[in-house]
Each structure stands twice: as structure tokens, then as C-alpha cells.
Automatic annotation (TrEMBL):
Residues 402-618 form the Bacterial surface antigen (D15) domain. GO terms for cellular component: outer membrane. It is found in: Membrane. Keywords: Cell outer membrane, Membrane, Signal, Transmembrane, Transmembrane beta strand. It comes from Ramlibacter cellulosilyticus. This is BamA/TamA family outer membrane protein. Residues 228-300 form the POTRA domain. Residues 1-30 form the signal peptide. It comes from the Bacteria.
């Protein structure tokens, strides 16, 4: 993917806004609360001036108990009552000791020594002295079940049961705290509700604390209730679009076992489809567990949308773009997306029409595209017509199609070249594309991997009508390190055909640029032709290693990262002629809410020059 048109102005606006906020924050922080005020501006004292506290409060206790008591003792609140007499303060001392013991109990100290003493002075001082004693630890933790999860022979129920037990966060030997006890119960309950049992609940819980031995015996029983299976979808909010579209995008068939994660993914599919601006799915736990109605509430997106863009890229210079979407073309009900790009080096026009998905998620699609590519050496005009079907899943995408394509390559320098040299030709092909994404986050991954391959075969339509076959495989992986992560990338492609076959430029390979081999111009790596020209080749390899580590601010990792990378790529007409072109560089990466945005400077070892590169978003 080439650099998006909005990257530069977006980054400038973001940096200016951040600078302005930083200056404002500096100005506010720089003025201390007790800074002297010029006499002419000081407000005159009045009856609303704040009264001094009734007493001072001093806490003597080990850290971090001292901070907890200072911030949470009820005595702190009563300091603001200015007219307390000695008898009232004496009663507060008694209440304060009880309050301190309750606070210490939440931290696992059930046998503390607490003393509150009054020290005379110009203003009374209450000194809270705490000796916490032994901290209570968990001696036993039992998690039991009742309902379907306790008796079911289903392997998934057994796995869920064992997962809750193994994920218990307050096992024997751990210090007991009220917060930890509440968190452990909450985590176990969420794990129960997440799948199969939306009506699950806690039927029994007990923390039996023995202050004498500083130990706690914990017991929890979860009642799963029955297994819930999804019933029919009940859709509200549709006006422009057929409610059938909701069920086919959500992919929650009747009879499916309840799964909270699948419901979340269904909501994301609906909002990411372009047909709906928002979607909410709810399964009522009070409904029939054998066929629980699935309530889907949506807010439809506009029928038509026009997006205009102005920007600049390091590869192509200034750029104007326009994209029009019609979500329901009259007469056929398909979606039509038309894109126009005005750019000196790479203008194009494209329209793609897609059907709504069938019950299995497959869609029909047709595409037409016309494009010009000027690499300062050769000028290629290409046209493409495509028809086929595709299916996009949560992790796996599949696509098969037939395609006609034509490429006309102009040679402004009039260097003697053959059509096989430049990729001047046309072809008809049958193609299949498979892509699997196994990342921890699809917008900005930090671990996992993705793999994809393309297989195609066809017949050239000029010259001797030669058959050919094209293959491409690519892989991207992230490996976490103690400081940051490694991004590893590999790609290889090959076209198998007779030497005289006039395979079109669009089926051959060139590489280089922002998202392939940095340190080189866009598509600047190819087969070297006479007079310094670069043509496409039949074999390609690309590899990259990038170290991404967070930039720390005040010792904490920020959303910005520093990158160091080495890229290499090669293109040739024969495997034995592959010669790597290497680029090395460094950059800054921002993990923005919409995906990574990176600016880098790279040096091409063979090009012997530095180049600036921008990229935005994550696509695999």
C-alpha cells in the first residue's frame, strides 16, 4: 500500500495541537498554588473565607498503609467542621479507631493495633499510630459449580469449567485483600457468562478469616443455569436496507451456542460493513434458553457518500482523490464504489460493484480499472476487467475471479526493447487468493502473524498466445521482545512462461518504496534494461527486519516508537540473476487509534542516496 494522501497534513495538525496543549499545560503548571498575588489584585477577605481545620491529622503506619489511611479515614472529612468541642473530638477518636480497623481489614490485616492520641497545641493534633500485625494469606480456595456446567459431558463445558478454576486469581499462598477477593469473583463470573451461560450467577461465596492464624479460607459456587442457544434475529432500525442483510453480515445462525465474543464480532462486522453506523446486539438471559431471541438494533448509514481528499506522497507528489459510494444501486441492490485519483505519476479511475453476501458469506463482485504509471523511465497505461466471488471472514479471506487485463508501455527514449522486456501485452487469467490473519490486533498488531498466497494461470492474448502461471506468497510476523518487538516480513513471487511470452506488465513484478524496500523510489527495483531503464521481472523476493521499541516519557512507554530496519529486495527474469538491493534506516512510529503512522529516513546502498518515507495504517 502506498502512502495515504492525508498523512502529511494530518501529522502537521496533530503536532501543532500537541504543541499548543503542551504550552498551555506548562503555563498552568508553572503558576504554583501559593504564588504571591499583587496587592492590587488580591481579593478582599470576606465572610466566605475558608475556616481553618478543627484539628491536624498525623498517620504513623508502614507504607503503603500510611497512604491508604491518610486518604480514606473518616477523620479527614471531620477536620472541616470548625466548631467541634472536646467531647465531640473524643467521640471521633473512638469512631476513628473502628474506621481504621475496617480499612486495614480490606488489606488483609485483621488483628492490628490501632491507637489515636490527642496532642495539645495551638490546634489539636490527632496522631493515628498503627501496628498492622501479620497479614492474612489465603490457606484454601475452592471453586465449585452447579447447573449444567457441573454435570455436562460436553468437552467445551469441561474446558470452560477448568479454565475458570485455572484462572482463579487469588489462590492459596496469596495475600488476602477485599479488593483481590472481589476481583477474583468478578473474573470468574465473567468467564462463566462469556460463553454458553449468559444467565450464570454466584450462588454462594464465603471468605472465612481466622485472625488468630492470619489465614483465610475462600469458597465460591457458580450456578451456570442452562446452556443458551441462539434463536431468531429480531432486527429493528432498518429502513433503506433489507433486514436480510443484517442476518447475513452478523452470521449468528439459529441453534448456535451463546458466545459473547461471537456477538461482539457480529457487531463489528455490521458497523464495519459500511451499511450501518452503529449496531447493538442483546440476548435476554430471561428468555427461552433453547431458542433465545437475538435482538439487533442498528442505525443505517446514508445511502450515498462522497469523500474528497487532498494530500501529498513521497512517491507521487501532490494528489487529489474522490470516492463515491452508493450502498444500493437501483434495480439490482448492489453496492457501487467509484474512485478517482489525480496524480502526476499514478492517476487512475476504478469502479467496483459488489452483491450482498449469501447465506455462506460469499459475494459476487465486478471491477473495472484504468491506470497510468509513470516511473520517469517508462510510462504504462493499463486496463483491467474482473468478475468473481469473495468471502471475508474474521481471520481468513478468500477470493476467486477471472480477469482480462491489457498493458501498453510507452518508451519515451525510444530505446530498442521487446514487449517481453517492458510487459507490453494482454492476457486472460483465472485467479485464487487466500489470506489468513492471526494477529492480536487487526489495526495495530504487536504479536502474531499473517500469511497469504495468490495462484493464477492464463493465456497471453498477443503474439503466440502462450500459457503462463503466476504465484505469490507473503508472510508478516511480530515477535515481542523485552523492549519492543521485531517485525519480520517476507515475500516471493514467480511467473512461469516461455521466454517469448508477452505477459502483461500487471502480472509481472517490480518493488521498492514506502511499504516494500525503503531507500528506493516506488517500483525502482526491477530488471535493468539498456539506457538506465527499469523493466518488470518474472521473479521477485523481498525481506525486511524492523525493530520497534517504545519511546519512554517519564519512565513510561508512550504511543510513539523508534524504529530501526533493514529492507532487501530483488527482481529478475531468472532466479540465478536475483541480486538484492538493500536499504537501511530509522524512523519514528505513532501507534494512533486508527493504526500506525510512520515517518522514516532510509539509505539505499545501491542507489547511494537517502530517501524520506511515510506510511499510514496497517494492511495485510
Amino acid at each position: 500500500m502506498r502512502s495515504p494522501a492525508i498523512v502529511l497534513p494530518f501529522m502537521i495538525r496533530t503536532l501543532l495541537a500537541a504543541a499548543g496543549l503542551a504550552l498551555l499545560a506548562t503555563a498552568v503548571v508553572a503558576q504554583p498554588a501559593d504564588a504571591p498575588v499583587p496587592p492590587g489584585l488580591a481579593p478582599a477577605p470576606g465572610p466566605e473565607a475558608k475556616a481553618p481545620p478543627a484539628f491536624d491529622l498525623v498517620v504513623r503506619a508502614p507504607d503503603p498503609l500510611k497512604e491508604i489511611l491518610e486518604n480514606n479515614l473518616e477523620l479527614r472529612r471531620y477536620r472541616e467542621v470548625s466548631d467541634l468541642d472536646d467531647a465531640e473530638i473524643a467521640r471521633l477518636v473512638v469512631l476513628g479507631e473502628k474506621d481504621a480497623r475496617e480499612l486495614l481489614a480490606t488489606q488483609g490485616y485483621f488483628d492490628p493495633q490501632v491507637r489515636i492520641a490527642r496532642e495539645p497545641g495551638a490546634r489539636t493534633t490527632l496522631v493515628v499510630t498503627v501496628e498492622p500485625g501479620r497479614r492474612t494469606t489465603v490457606s484454601e480456595a475452592r471453586v465449585e459449580f452447579e447447573g449444567d456446567i457441573a454435570t455436562s459431558a460436553d468437552p467445551e463445558a469441561a474446558a470452560q469449567r477448568e479454565g475458570i478454576r485455572s484462572g482463579w486469581s487469588l489462590p492459596a499462598g496469596q495475600p488476602f485483600t477485599q479488593t483481590g477477593w472481589d476481583r477474583a469473583k468478578s473474573v470468574a463470573t465473567r468467564a462463566l457468562l462469556a460463553r454458553r451461560y449468559p444467565a450464570g450467577r454466584i450462588s454462594y461465596s464465603l471468605a472465612d478469616v481466622d485472625a488468630a492464624t492470619a489465614s483465610a479460607r475462600l469458597g465460591l459456587r457458580l450456578d451456570s443455569g442452562p446452556v443458551y442457544r441462539l434463536g431468531a434475529l429480531q432486527v429493528t432500525g432498518t429502513q433503506r436496507y433489507d433486514p436480510l442483510l443484517v442476518s447475513r453480515l452478523a452470521r449468528l445462525p439459529e441453534g448456535t451456542v451463546y458466545d459473547q465474543e461471537q456477538i461482539v464480532q457480529a457487531q463489528l462486522r455490521l458497523t464495519g460493513s459500511g451499511y450501518f453506523d452503529s449496531a447493538f446486539i442483546y440476548v435476554d438471559p430471561e428468555s427461552d434458553p433453547n431458542a433465545a431471541p437475538v435482538q439487533v438494533t442498528v442505525r443505517e448509514a446514508p445511502l450515498q457518500k462522497l469523500v474528497l481528499g487532498v494530500g501529498f506522497t513521497t512517491d507521487g507528489g501532490p494528489r487529489l482523490t474522490a470516492e463515491h459510494t452508493h450502498n444500493r444501486v437501483p434495480g439490482i441492490g448492489w453496492r457501487a464504489v467509484t474512485k478517482l485519483q489525480a496524480e502526476k505519476k499514478n492517476p487512475y479511475a476504478q469502479t467496483e460493484w459488489t452483491d450482498i453476501p449469501d447465506e455462506d458469506g460469499w459475494r459476487w463482485s465486478v471491477l473495472a480499472r484504468g491506470e497510468k504509471l509513470d516511473d520517469d523511465r517508462l510510462v504504462t497505461h493499463s486496463q483491467r476487467l474482473r468478475a468473481g466471488r469473495f468471502k471475508n471472514g474474521d481471520r481468513i479471506d478468500r477470493n476467486w475471479y477471472v480477469q482480462y487485463e491489457r498493458a501498453r508501455v510507452q518508451n519515451p527514449r525510444n530505446v530498442p526493447l521487446t514487449s517481453a522486456d517492458t510487459g507490453d501485452g494482454s492476457a486472460f487469467t483465472v485467479n485464487y487468493i487466500w489470506t489468513g490473519r492471526y494477529f492480536d490486533n487487526v489495526q495495530s498488531p504487536t504479536s502474531g502473524y499473517g500469511i497469504g498466497f495468490e495462484l493464477g494461470g492464463g493465456l497471453t492474448l498477443e503474439g503466440n498466445n502462450q500459457p503462463f502461471q503466476r504465484s505469490l506468497v507473503r508472510w508478516l510476523g511480530y515477535r515481542p521482545l523485552s523492549s519492543g518487538r521485531l517485525e519480520l516480513r517476507a515475500e516471493a513471487g514467480a511467473v512461469f512462461a516461455k521466454p517469448q511470452a508477452e505477459v502483461p506488465f500487471t502480472q509481472l513484478f517490480r518493488t521498492g518504496g514506502d511499504t516494500s524496500v525503503r531507500g528506493y523510489k516506488y517500483l525502482d527495483i526491477g530488471v535493468e534494461l539498456p539506457d538506465g531503464l527499469i523493466g518488470p521481472g518474472r521473479y521477485m523476493t523481498v525481506g525486511s527486519v524492523e525493530w520497534q521499541r517504545p519511546i519512554r516519557v517519564r519512565g513510561q512507554p508512550s504511543a510513539f516508537e523508534h524504529t530501526l530496519f533493514v529492507d532487501a529486495g530483488a527482481v529478475a527474469d531468472k532466479p540465478s540473476e536475483l541480486r538484492a538491493r538493500v536499504g537501511v534506516g530509522t524512523g519514528v512510529r505513532w501507534r494512533s487509534p486508527v493504526g500506525p503512522i510512520e515517518a522514516a529516513i532510509a539509505y539505499g546502498l545501491e542507489a547511494k542516496r537517502f530517501r524520506l518515507h511515510f506510511s499510514a495504517g496497517f494492511v495485510f
